[in-house]
Amino acid sequence: MSKALEITVALMLVSALFISVVPPAQADVSYDLWAKAGTIAVPGAPSIPVWGFSTTATGPALVPGPLIEAVQGELVTITLHNSLAEPVSIIFPAQNVQPTPVKDASGLFVSFSAIAPPSGMVVYQFTAGNPGSYLYESGAQPQKQVHMGLYGPMIVRPAPGSNQAYNDVRSAFDAELLVILSEIDPALHAAGASGGAYSISAFQPQYWLINGRTYPDTVSATSPSPGQPWSAKVNASPGQRILLRCLNAGFQNHSLTVNSIIAKVIGGEGSPLWKNGLDATYGVSSIVIGSGEGYDLLLTAPATSGNYHIYDRDLLHLVNAGTYPGGMIGLIQVP
Amino acid sequence: MIRSKDSGLLPGMCLVALAVMFLSGSSWGAAFDLWAKDAYISTPDGNSIYIWGLTDSAANRAQLPAPTLVVQQGDTVNITLHNDLAEPVSLVFPGQDVVSSGGVAGLLAQEAPAAGGTVTYQFAAGSPGTYMYHSGTNVHKQVHMGIYGVIIVRPADWSPTNKTAYGAGTDTEFDREHLLITGELDPDLHWAVEMGEDYDIRAFKARYWTVNGRCFPDTLLPDNAAYLPNQPYGALIMCKPDERVLLRYVGVGMQNHVLHPHGNHTRVIAQDGQLLKGPAGEDLSTLNFTVLLGTGQTVDQIYIWSGLGYTPSNPIPTRIPGLKNLVIMDPTLYSGSPYLGVKGDLPVGTTSLNEVGEYYFMLHAHEELQITNWGAFPGGLMTLITVYPPDYPL
């Protein structure tokens, strides 16, 4: 390592330690996350290399990363430990976090926020903002690290254990489901894991995922690998209100659709559509969710029992390496 | 100039599947029979592309798009699908609560088995609006191959003299309506299906883009043109100043499309059949120039060409360059005069297709590649809006 970089890294480590020893005024929620390498499984490819966040030093890399949960106004402390060979960081879009971008000694941009160097750590601290559904993701080499799997969901609740999405009784739900969208280009994942040349311009996904799995694993109670603990399936009784917290962690737009059901868009990214006395919520059959965007959808489980699939209406994304059905298909099941 | 006859139904799509009315229990219903078949369609550059689609007669080939079904709020709709293709077929009806009978269970819908199987779908048309219907089987293939169409639900108080999209008091009155269904064609994938070869959607590369199953300039041709036997719906929009023109965009294909008309904004009044009004009737409509029509979405808009206060007695003085400084295509749609309803001078030898001094505006996808036919401009996802002089008998 060059002398200049050594000094830079040493300064980072010192500053990280300095932040962590300041006693927080109110340590409401704390999470330790390890950024590490791992593998996940999709039909036909049982071992795709990924990078993911783990909740312990020795646990599996999880894709998506663990759920960060907080109540509006609580102090959130995230300690990021880096088990990878390159700097990582986390950004918290829509949260009130002071940006601290990092450049290297030659002035080249390294990260949108403070980094944890390899084998090092960094602490982030912020006050949880408006209730809602958010993504957290890597801010260092995001075109590689986010695609490799370094992203996860954050939910801010209006009150502890609340069954409302926002500070509004109209946002009440009986069941909620995170719907986190992403894609995998296995060639790029192999390049990223091996440390070889990673050219995002060659991006050509072969797999499309909800909550880190492709169909049919999305609707299975069995995890295809220890790194994929979440299905994309929710059971509901007729008339129950289901909240779909949709977050697009991928690099493509996706047109989310629930078969046969009109869902109501009640807000997104912490911003409810009930505002200043105006009810601006609207019904959709299909909603385009751009890369990085989030929408909260509230729907009522129909009276007729059956399988109501949640799927990407971009029909090219319903395959696993070309085989249908696959990809971005989840399920609301009314028994 | 070519024009479509306003039949009072949906101009630009004369061939509406005729509902067989029947009495079911205590309410009127609407029943349709549709056959899943194949056919060939034409593109303006001379290509002939194999498609799958639906038709409302056992004797016909498929049409692209499928027959437009027009029903009324409150109808109980029954649709029986007859399958003449060599693989199972089904239909899904976004926005409708469907009960199926017959057929066999599929992933997204009950299916009609191959080679003669049938299945029946029933739903109550509870809410007025613009809805799509399309295959629910092997969707990455069958929707792209052409098994898609539109359902229009008229409001309960609809009448030809009281035309609204969503009923009285919804501010959705219109003078004319047009249906614009967007789609794409990858001729290599269609060829693979025709030849019985492997269909790999990963190789999807659209070369043609369509409105109502046709590529520009075929979009301007009449409904039921004899030379487009399997593409019965045109997309030419014709109106007069200050008329409220209801445009129903339907994004039933494989790609998102950003669309806009020239000549004015549109007011987006509903999407996916959901009226943009709050619970107390608050106006949630928006005035847009460009609309992102996502896959699986319908968007209803009102377009009004108002001409900046134009009236025949207030023609807005203008000065145009001398003829020698104008570049005029041949043939041209230009009348030779900038004034509505007036024809003027054109260079000697120029052929003008202009009829009575009407205006022409494009309505098109703004992703420029999509307004070509395999790269040749103009083409693809484009049609024209024609504004006729107020005294013209449209």
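qc> Confidence is low (pLDDT under 50) at residues 1-9, 11-27 of chain B.
qc> done
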